[in-house]
Amino acid sequence: MAWRMLRRKDFHTGLVNLAFRKDHGVKKHFSSGTIGNLAQVYHGDRPKRSASCMPSNHFTIRNFHAGVYMLAWSRKREDVVGLKAPKKEKRVKKENRTQPPVEAPYIAPKPKTSIKSLPDKTVEIFDGMTLLDLSKRTGAYISTLQGILADLGEKVESEFDSISIDLAELVSMELGVNTRRMHTGEGTNEPRPAVVTVMGHVDHGKTSLLDALRQTSVAAKEAGGITQHIGAFVVEMPSGASITFLDTPGHAAFSAMRARGAAVTDIVVLVVAADDGVMPQTLEAMSHAKASNVPIVVAINKCDKSGADPERVRIQLGSEGLLLEDMGGDVQVVEISAVAKSGLDKLEEALLLQAEMMDLKARIDGPAQAFVVEARVDRGRGPLATAIVKYGTLVSGQHIVVGAEWGRIRSLRDTAGNITQSAKPAMPIEIEGLRGLPMAGDDVVVVDSEERARMLSHGRKKQQEKDRLRKIDEGMAEELEIKEETPERVEMPIIVKADVQGSVQAVTDALRSLNSAQVFVNVVHVGVGPISEHDIDLAQACGAYIVGFNIRSPPSTITQAAARANIKVLLHKVIYHLLEEMGRAIVEKAPGTAETQVSGEAEVLNIFELKGRSKSKGSDIKIAGCRITDGHFSKSGTMRLLRSGDVVFEGPCASLKREKQDAETIEKGNDCGLVIQDCDDFQVGDIIQCLEQVIRKPKFISTQSGSVRIEC
């Protein structure tokens, strides 16, 4: 029985292999005898035994079973038995390309942020605005804003969630959009003192008026008797009311300071001298006040002088479009004298009346917002910023961001120099504790933490750097246009150092106004504080002038280093003298323009002819006997022969003699003999002009109003 089961097993194995052979097309390798033997086993016939007592057909099946692998090996098949081998694809011969490959157009990748608005567009942001509001204002997608907030460590899931004004500014800066903070007036509003800015022409008595109001003497301390800074202080009036005054410079170079004063003020006091009348800076102060939509109170000063004419001042102001009360307008006019201290009570009454009509109130609680009117560096206290609080209460110890600088308020000082813990609206204070020097005109913003202050400061610095590079590119483009028009233009590098940030800006703007077609004034570096060794090294590297305004004299080591490096250092305390000396230096450095001018005229009185000269001396020549009627004649000049007003000939002088002696120059009233090269067409009565090439330098022009310019 065991033998029969074994035979059946072998038989089934052979059938399986037989089926495999049939499927793979190898049926022809089987013999009929083998099939017959398989059938005998299937029907149960006992096969004949061999001498080895083993069935002979068993070996046939075994050989048949092993022959499948041998057949696969003989055909060098690599596939496993029982799996279908993949069909081989036909080889296609590649055609040789005769045409060059077609270049596919470049497709730029999609930007991560999609902003519909322009990068230089300014959007308004406010505290508590939603993500949807910011998306509409900046033109960016909600997902983009959420991604930026996630990078900043803030998670905002819904588009209707509100964010702080600091986060809104950080996100806008990441998108490259400029922002303007809009502060809400929510909170407790209380009356505040008026901020009054005193403006007018230089030397019309603005500082003297403030001296009379606060019974001090500031004008005596100013260099040259003119104000060169913004002074902010509080004056207690006799009636008990307090007014915050800003004193602005009147010189033409300090236009930016006057603009800042008008931007932060409530009322402008326009001081006009009764003996001088309306001047250019008076008109400029009027335009600043009108641009800021600030009411004006006119104070006609110096009415005690003999040449005072207040009526003429009124007529001039009316002709400039200022509607005075005397002429049916709403602008109050007060006649005063700062020296005699007359009319000050009327001026106080006019200011308080104007402030009462305006109903000045401000929010006193919540975070403060202030405006920087001046900034400077103190040797012991570091960067200091003079600011006026607009809203809220500024408290010592808060973290603030001022422009692109940040810091923690170390101390607050009032105008008298006393330390105070807080500052309320309309109060001028001096802020100490900043990490860097801010720019005059920057806003002071209170933030929650030091980390937020750092982030805002870093983002603003990046934005300022982008703006600076863009301005440099624009300036280089303008410079190339100027170079195309003017073939020769020299560069004059200048380093500016001053005592406060406002003076740095004023001096820089004034020097840049001296640009001309021949000299390019390039301010390579500005700074606040005394001249340092770094300034000397920088000036030596680029060959720059060092201009110090209203700073102390440098130590002897700095002075000697500048002398060894042949660096010019100009120190001045009055803006007039500084601009005059720089104007002369610019004129001296200018290459000038070559021009042809008539240096003299002569009349032909007689004609002499030399004949029979040897070949070595040349052919016959004609000599014009002339008398110089104007100017002088030079042998190096070009001679122009005129007849009846028309030019007959023009050429170089071959010979110039006086009394048979060669002469280089002959002055007016003398007779001379003149030979013009290649010219023998002289007639009695002709006019001969001597032309010379001269280098004309530009002119430095200073007007009575204080403005300066270079005229080529």
UniProtKB/TrEMBL annotation:
<feature type="region of interest" description="Disordered">
    <location>
        <begin position="88"/>
        <end position="113"/>
    </location>
</feature>
<dbReference type="Pfam" id="PF11987">
    <property type="entry name" value="IF-2"/>
</dbReference>
<dbReference type="GO" id="GO:0003743">
    <property type="term" value="F:translation initiation factor activity"/>
</dbReference>
<dbReference type="Pfam" id="PF00009">
    <property type="entry name" value="GTP_EFTU"/>
</dbReference>
<keyword id="KW-0396">Initiation factor</keyword>
<dbReference type="InterPro" id="IPR009000">
    <property type="entry name" value="Transl_B-barrel_sf"/>
</dbReference>
<comment type="function">
    <text>One of the essential components for the initiation of protein synthesis. Protects formylmethionyl-tRNA from spontaneous hydrolysis and promotes its binding to the 30S ribosomal subunits. Also involved in the hydrolysis of GTP during the formation of the 70S ribosomal complex.</text>
</comment>
<feature type="domain" description="Tr-type G">
    <location>
        <begin position="191"/>
        <end position="361"/>
    </location>
</feature>
<dbReference type="InterPro" id="IPR036925">
    <property type="entry name" value="TIF_IF2_dom3_sf"/>
</dbReference>
<dbReference type="GO" id="GO:0005525">
    <property type="term" value="F:GTP binding"/>
</dbReference>
<dbReference type="InterPro" id="IPR000178">
    <property type="entry name" value="TF_IF2_bacterial-like"/>
</dbReference>
<protein>
    <recommendedName>
        <fullName>Translation initiation factor IF-2, mitochondrial</fullName>
    </recommendedName>
</protein>
<keyword id="KW-0648">Protein biosynthesis</keyword>
<dbReference type="InterPro" id="IPR000795">
    <property type="entry name" value="T_Tr_GTP-bd_dom"/>
</dbReference>
<dbReference type="InterPro" id="IPR023115">
    <property type="entry name" value="TIF_IF2_dom3"/>
</dbReference>
<dbReference type="InterPro" id="IPR015760">
    <property type="entry name" value="TIF_IF2"/>
</dbReference>
<keyword id="KW-0342">GTP-binding</keyword>
<dbReference type="GO" id="GO:0005739">
    <property type="term" value="C:mitochondrion"/>
</dbReference>
<dbReference type="Pfam" id="PF22042">
    <property type="entry name" value="EF-G_D2"/>
</dbReference>
<comment type="similarity">
    <text>Belongs to the TRAFAC class translation factor GTPase superfamily. Classic translation factor GTPase family. IF-2 subfamily.</text>
</comment>
<dbReference type="InterPro" id="IPR044145">
    <property type="entry name" value="IF2_II"/>
</dbReference>
<keyword id="KW-0496">Mitochondrion</keyword>
<keyword id="KW-0547">Nucleotide-binding</keyword>
<dbReference type="GO" id="GO:0003924">
    <property type="term" value="F:GTPase activity"/>
</dbReference>
<dbReference type="InterPro" id="IPR005225">
    <property type="entry name" value="Small_GTP-bd"/>
</dbReference>
<dbReference type="InterPro" id="IPR053905">
    <property type="entry name" value="EF-G-like_DII"/>
</dbReference>
<keyword id="KW-0809">Transit peptide</keyword>
<dbReference type="InterPro" id="IPR027417">
    <property type="entry name" value="P-loop_NTPase"/>
</dbReference>
